[in-house]
């Protein structure tokens, strides 16, 4: 670890010195050769564009391809503009068709077209096929390089077929079985083939496939992939004809991307589509500003609520002291409930028909949480500010926690019902909503208890 | 979709009628047979304990095992207490050693011991081996059922060996190669073996393995697994001797669990270890109350800050109106930064040495966000409440956004530096911190501008 980190530092120092002479570049190439691929990706990904391009150009072909494949498509597109045509053609030719499609998508149409013409016919056909599906469709992520068997093959024939054609296949561990018009009949695992009698028929060994249609949503398809504990999943068209195969690494990448998106949106920001450290400042601002504005504008609601109660505040200015504590607690309680229910929805433990059960559960959970916090609030603020204020705090905490838990539990279900991403009613949104509602509860209780 | 949902309703109705007679139970069994495994899991997982037990008991052996395997260990342990001894023994015997270890962990020691005695010697030995590793170690998740080759084997011998012993192996698609004392020398993919000459030696085909030590942290090991795009990863002991193998489904389950934990903690709650709808209310409360108390107690800080400025509030009560809006905006900005940096840390795009770059970036990002929001704040509140208040709002939003972005960017790095989970400095914690700091900024600016 220490040595590798020391070399990363060496390469970093060389890069920063803006190497230009043959000799300097050769030294950089030599040092870079000793770095593990992960370190190279880190450097290319996080250094400014000029340094990335210099480093990338001194890599040998295999290392360059490995690094290139690890970059997000937007970053790939940028990098390409700084490379010589031959190097670009080599890299594009070596990418998998699905990765190539993502990259071409990010390039200006004229550049993409020129690159497509540089490919051989087969590669071009496969790339076009993948590019034909909508952006979030699973067809975008499949590999068209699939190796189908037919049910009439014997195990011996099938294994020979696999041996001869393995080069063209993305995976040989799960083999789709198709009829003469390429309609998917089932799948057979290589394990099963290997253990079977040589004269057995593929058709007798195959079993029903867990497959997806190429136009299916990528997240749904990836979740089905993992639920069925697959190593690969055949992808079919609308007529159930085999068009490609999805492998584990693709499914993992999709779920990772979805998790990233969800956790970003839950915190009120859009995910960045390239490395944080090399994303231009204004692009990061763009990923945050819309949410921030929407939330700030919603928060004007709280100003209006407080305006209504301005004379109470004027009478008992002490009431203002507890505003951040109360709104904070409401927001936290709401977010806890929303996070739990969003997760339960995602894994299918909660469904829309469970809405009444969710509300009833959160009502009780919120009441218990509110009773604990309320008792504490009554005690502490009662001791410091007197019984009347203590009573207001106790009752308010009890009510706010109950309300917030119900709101937090409901929001993801409502989002699902209207067909929106549950993350749209994100945590900050729930907080803002609970802020306004909580303030109304607070001043209503204060007015009643203090007789204002 | 509609038919399957209709049948779920039928089974649900039967369950709710508390079936007891032979005939009723037989009808339930018949209806349950037509449900896909996912629906059975949903019902067993989310119905009250008595209904779950009834449904589970009418399932045939394969369906019962499939459902049982899909349940979290805590839920498995509960279910077991309601079953007949023979059914329990059957299920325990059929589980994978790693799943069995998780379950035994959840059972009372006496029950676990009795169950262990019911296993045959081999199964018992493997379970004990897995149970020997600490709770978060990758050894807990590996399968000891591994099929090693030796470097001197020819491809023909190796394939014959695989065919004969495949039954005892968790996977045959990646085969570890070991020396006579079981030290891991490398791995060879089944694909490679199949395509090689029959007389080639395994030792010449093998390549260096990406492996993990059994005591390694599960999350680190799983991340390495996916970074290297593996189908399986050999697990070794401290002397590099092969002890087991980790497969894709285990690695996926670990990462899913970690994602769940992180997203829960980020929202200030502990993850539930069983289905939300069937978790007792008080257990849900327990998962939330500690965080809520800690946050509420930290929020007392905001009360103290406001107390310091109480006379300013008394003079200009209008200042109170903007408190929730300002604290909310600060919290949101901080959370956005924290989420982005936490993600970048997790995927290795940001490292500890990048701390100055992160601070410098967030300072500029926060300033731009603050400038946009501040201008808007100046305009809107200036129009409604006059120029002085407008100026206070503009300057405060600018300062709060800048401060919050820096704090949000720093917190995950500080957590990492002190060796804590970045999720510990969770979003609500950052919000609370930004609330208190933001209020100080607000009243300091107000005092200066309004000349209080």
UniProtKB/TrEMBL annotation, chains A, B:
It is found in: Cell membrane; Membrane. The lineage of its organism: Bacteria, Bacillati, Actinomycetota, Actinomycetes, Micrococcales. Acts as a magnesium transporter. CDD domains: CBS_pair_Mg_transporter. It is a multi-pass membrane protein. This is Magnesium transporter MgtE. Residues 142-205 form the CBS domain. It comes from Brachybacterium ginsengisoli. It comes from the Bacteria. The gene is mgtE.
């Amino acid at each position: 670890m220490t040595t590798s980190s020391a070399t990363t530092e060496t390469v970093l120092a060389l890069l920063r010195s803006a190497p230009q002479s043959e000799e300097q570049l050769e030294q950089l190439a030599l040092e870079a050769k000793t770095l593990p691929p992960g370190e190279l990706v880190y450097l290319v990904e996080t250094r400014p564009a000029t340094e990335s391009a210099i480093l990338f150009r001194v890599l040998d072909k295999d290392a360059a391809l490995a690094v290139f494949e690890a970059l997000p498509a937007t970053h790939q597109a940028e990098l390409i503009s700084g490379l010589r045509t031959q190097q670009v053609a080599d890299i594009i030719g070596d990418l998998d068709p699905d990765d190539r499609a993502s990259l071409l998508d990010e390039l200006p149409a004229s550049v993409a077209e020129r690159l497509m013409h540089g490919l051989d016919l087969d590669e071009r056909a496969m790339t076009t096929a993948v590019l034909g599906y909508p952006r979030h469709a699973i067809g975008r992520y499949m590999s068209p390089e699939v190796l189908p068997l037919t049910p009439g093959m014997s195990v011996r024939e099938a294994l020979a077929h696999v041996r001869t054609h393995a080069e063209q296949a993305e995976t040989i561990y799960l083999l789709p079985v198709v009829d003469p018009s390429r309609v998917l009949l089932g799948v057979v695992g290589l394990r099963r083939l290997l253990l079977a009698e040589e004269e057995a028929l593929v058709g007798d060994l195959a079993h029903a496939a867990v497959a997806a249609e190429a136009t299916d949503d990528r997240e749904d398809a990836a979740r089905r992939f993992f639920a069925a504990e697959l190593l690969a999943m055949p992808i079919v068209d609308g007529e159930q004809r085999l068009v490609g195969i999805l492998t584990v690494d693709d499914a993992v990448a999709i779920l990772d991307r979805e998790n990233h998106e969800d956790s970003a949106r839950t915190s009120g920001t859009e995910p960045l589509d390239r490395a944080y450290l090399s994303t231009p400042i204004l692009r990061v601002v763009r990923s945050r500003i819309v949410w921030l504005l929407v939330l700030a504008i919603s928060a004007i609601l709280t100003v209006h609520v407080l305006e209504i109660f301005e004379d109470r505040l004027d009478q008992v200015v002490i009431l203002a002291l507890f505003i951040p504590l109360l709104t904070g607690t409401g927001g936290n309680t709401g977010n806890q409930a929303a996070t739990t229910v969003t997760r339960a929805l995602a894994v299918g433990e909660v469904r829309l028909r469970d809405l009444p059960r969710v509300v009833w559960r959160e009502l009780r959970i919120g009441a218990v949480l509110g009773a604990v916090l309320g008792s504490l609030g009554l005690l502490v603020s009662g001791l410091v500010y007197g019984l009347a204020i203590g009573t207001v705090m106790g009752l308010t905490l009890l009510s706010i926690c109950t309300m917030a838990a119900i709101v937090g539990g409901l929001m993801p279900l409502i989002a699902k019902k209207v067909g929106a991403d549950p993350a749209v009613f994100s945590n900050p949104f729930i907080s803002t909503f609970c802020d306004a509602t909580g303030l109304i509860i607070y001043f209503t209780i204060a007015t009643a208890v203090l007789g204002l």
